[in-house]
């Protein structure tokens, strides 16, 4: 019942090294992993806490902004209601009787009625009646006796009257020794002939107006400030523990106390502002709009970040505790893993030092020094799929299906290095892959040697590595990617490609079928170019019954074998803007040095060029049909092969601003843009030299024409053919150039 401190084994320990031991290297490795783990957990926990607090700040800001909208809407409605109330009082019976028959008795009765209104309506500070000349006649309070009506509201030059109500900007007045923000509303009292009897003015408290709204529709724990467009405070002076940068007295200016915040508020109608220690929410409010005058103000609320942190304290503690638990569990997992690795290594050492190695779970063979199998265990026989009796006295080379060169290499390694490691493919029906280790040992009591062969079936691992290699090739790019064989059949594709082509997991399809018949017809040219240059790039336009709707920038990159043949193609697709008009008849728009176009495609390309580009261009016609060599129909296939070889060679050296096209069998056309007559002639000479170096220059004649204004491609070709005919007639040269100029009837050609 005693505890085992070493690895359990059926055999006793031969030496102490068979047990597990914590070396200095293992301890340093464990400590470094634990330190990295703690650092990562600390960083992640801190990030989660900060993100949580930030999220809570944003939630508070969204809630306060909604409350500000409600307060703004209700305040605007309240001001509209106050206008209606002012108009109702102005049309009251007592006031009408007084204005018709002024008397002290009616004046006293009117004042008593108005005092009753001010006592029952909290935001109504007082009422006053002014004469048609704008002089105070009587009022319920003397706090506003010094107020003068604006001259623009008096006399015949006014813009308002009748049922209109004028709302003044906000101002301050002392009431009972306390500064009170207020605004007044003025109503015109007119005679039937629209002459003025007088003016009724009602004085309203801003603070009490907001207090009637705020308790029901705004969080009482959050301050609510009212500022005018100049930043002066009109309400919200009673903030509990206000910020140092916030105005706390009526009439104080936010522009002076917090200029950075005020700049943001002044430039926007609403929004949020996050400082280092607080979050602010603001909203511009328009209380009334009358002719040229707008009464606009700002509602502002804020909260300290430390208040948010206080609300978030429980979550912070919970996250920290969770982070500690995760760190503890991960630390235990790392320690257990190190312990497991040590135990496993100890077990391997025990197996190597044990006398019962041959009867272990390893597949083992004992082979004499000449390569004949002497003994084999059951595990090895099962791996080789042969009975034990059939394996004895057989050649190891034949059993493992080794050729002479590799077997001799193994023997040399055993002779010089005493061991050999490698993978062996049995090339049987299942094609098993064996990880093999051969060690050459000397017999204890003789001078003879034997081979101890151990191997392990790694077929599944090898297949997994092959699959991983294919996936690695496929997913090198973050865009839509597909991996195909040389014929274009899809082997693997990523999620972006599956969605782009709407495959829904069905990848048993060719890439040429997805991209249209035109690409299918050019596939041989494309694969040939990939073999030479490594990749092919083009733009693929949408077509009828296609699976995509946008122009695709397509890049095919070849994975070549050691012999230079294409083994795999890595195809990437990116949405892009087409370089030519969408009405182009061709849906494959290659780079100008990418593919050989047909003549109609070259014509579309030529039409889309600007007149300035055409004026600096030349047209080269190449005849590649040597007379007397391909003279009958039986040699047409040879001519086609020769033309294909020349096309591929031209594509390799073709500049980016040139375009090659097939005119007919035996003739090629090259459009040279951004060039002149001299550079075109030099390019033709260089091209001939290059073809002669490749043994392709025999019988080639070249005609070159310069562009004539407003001429079509057919006229361009006709001028180039004139030069080609002259080149064929010449004995000492095979390049001729035509410089064309217009005449009165037709264009004439000057041959050089």
UniProtKB/TrEMBL annotation:
The keyword Ion transport does not apply. It is found in: Membrane. PROSITE patterns: GGDEF. GO terms for molecular function: ATP binding; kinase activity. The chain crosses the membrane at residues 27-49, 317-336. Residues 615-741 form the GGDEF domain. One of its GO terms (cellular component) is membrane. SUPFAM superfamilies: Nucleotide cyclase (SSF55073), PYP-like sensor domain (PAS domain) (SSF55785), Sensory domain-like (SSF103190). Keywords: ATP-binding, Kinase, Membrane, Nucleotide-binding, Phosphoprotein, Transferase, Transmembrane, Transmembrane helix, Two-component regulatory system. GO terms for biological process: phosphorelay signal transduction system. Its main location: membrane. It comes from the Bacteria. This is PAS domain-containing protein. It comes from Shewanella psychromarinicola. The lineage of its organism: Bacteria, Pseudomonadati, Pseudomonadota, Gammaproteobacteria, Alteromonadales.
């Amino acid at each position: 019942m005693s505890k085992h401190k070493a690895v359990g084994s059926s055999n006793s320990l031969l030496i102490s090294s068979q047990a597990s031991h914590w070396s200095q290297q293992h301890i340093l490795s464990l400590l470094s992993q634990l330190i990295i783990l703690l650092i990562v957990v600390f960083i992640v926990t801190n990030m989660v806490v900060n993100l949580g607090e930030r999220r809570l700040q944003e939630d508070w800001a969204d809630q306060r902004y909604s409350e500000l909208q409600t307060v703004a809407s209700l305040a605007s409605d309240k001001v509209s209601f106050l206008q209606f109330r002012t108009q109702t009082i102005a049309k009251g019976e007592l006031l009408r009787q007084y204005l018709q028959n002024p008397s002290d008795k009616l004046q006293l009765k009117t004042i008593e009625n108005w005092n009753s209104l001010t006592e029952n309506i909290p935001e109504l500070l007082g009422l006053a009646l002014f004469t048609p000349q704008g002089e105070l006649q009587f009022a319920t309070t003397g706090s506003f006796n010094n107020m003068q009506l604006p001259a623009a509201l008096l006399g015949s030059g006014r813009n308002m009257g009748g049922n209109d109500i004028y709302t003044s900007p906000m101002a301050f007045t002392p009431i009972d020794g306390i500064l009170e923000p207020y605004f007044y509303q003025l109503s015109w009292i007119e005679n039937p002939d629209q002459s003025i009897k007088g003016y009724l003015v009602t004085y309203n408290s801003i603070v009490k107006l907001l207090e009637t709204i705020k308790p029901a529709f705004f969080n009482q724990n959050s301050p609510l400030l009212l500022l005018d467009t100049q930043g002066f405070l009109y309400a919200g002076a009673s903030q509990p523990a206000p910020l140092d940068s916030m105005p706390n007295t009526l009439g104080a200016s936010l522009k002076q106390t917090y200029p950075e915040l005020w700049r943001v508020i002044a430039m926007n109608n609403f929004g949020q502002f996050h400082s280092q220690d607080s979050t602010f929410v603001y909203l511009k409010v328009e209380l009334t709009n009358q002719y040229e005058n707008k009464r606009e103000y700002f509602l502002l609320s804020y909260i300290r970040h430390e208040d948010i942190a206080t609300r978030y304290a429980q979550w912070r503690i919970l996250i920290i505790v969770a982070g500690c638990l995760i760190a503890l569990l991960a630390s235990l997992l790392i320690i257990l893993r190190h312990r497991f690795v040590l135990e496993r290594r100890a077990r391997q050492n025990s197996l190597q030092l044990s006398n019962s190695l041959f009867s272990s779970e390893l597949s083992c063979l004992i082979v004499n020094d000449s390569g004949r199998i002497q003994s084999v265990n059951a595990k090895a026989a099962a791996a080789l799929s042969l009975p034990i009796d059939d394996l004895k006295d057989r050649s190891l080379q034949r059993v493992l299906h080794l050729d002479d060169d590799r077997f001799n290499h193994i023997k040399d390694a055993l002779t010089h290095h005493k061991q050999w490691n490698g993978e062996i493919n049995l090339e049987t029906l299942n094609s098993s892959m064996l990880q093999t280790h051969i060690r050459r040992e000397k017999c204890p009591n003789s001078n003879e040697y034997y081979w101890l062969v151990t191997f392990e079936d790694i077929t599944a691992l090898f297949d997994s590595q092959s699959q991983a290699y294919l996936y690695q090739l496929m997913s090198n790019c973050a865009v839509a990617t597909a991996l195909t064989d040389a014929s274009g059949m899809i082997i693997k594709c990523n999620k972006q490609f599956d969605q782009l082509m709407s495959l829904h997991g069905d990848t048993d399809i060719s890439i040429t079928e997805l991209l249209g018949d035109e690409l299918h017809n050019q596939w041989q040219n494309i694969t040939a170019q990939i073999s030479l240059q490594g990749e092919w790039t083009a733009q693929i336009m949408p077509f009828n019954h296609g699976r995509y709707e946008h122009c695709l920038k397509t890049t095919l990159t070849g994975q070549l074998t050691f012999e230079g043949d294409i083994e795999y193609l890595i195809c990437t697709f990116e949405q892009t803007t087409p370089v030519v008009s969408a009405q182009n008849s061709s849906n494959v728009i290659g780079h100008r040095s990418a593919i050989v176009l047909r003549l109609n495609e070259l014509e579309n390309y030529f039409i889309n060029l600007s007149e300035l580009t055409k004026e600096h261009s030349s047209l080269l016609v190449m005849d590649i049909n040597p007379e007397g060599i391909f003279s009958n129909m039986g040699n047409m296939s040879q001519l086609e092969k020769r033309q294909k070889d020349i096309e591929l060679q031209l594509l390799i050296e073709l500049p980016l601003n040139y375009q090659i096209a097939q005119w007919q069998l035996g003739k090629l056309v090259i459009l040279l843009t951004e060039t002149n007559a001299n550079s075109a002639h030099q390019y033709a000479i260089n091209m001939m030299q290059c073809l002669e170096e490749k043994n392709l220059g025999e019988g080639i004649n070249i005609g070159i024409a310069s562009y004539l204004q407003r001429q079509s491609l057919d006229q361009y070709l006709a001028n180039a053919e004139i030069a080609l005919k002259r080149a064929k007639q010449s004995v000492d040269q095979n390049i001729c150039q035509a410089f064309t100029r217009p005449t009165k009837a037709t264009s004439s050609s000057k041959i050089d």
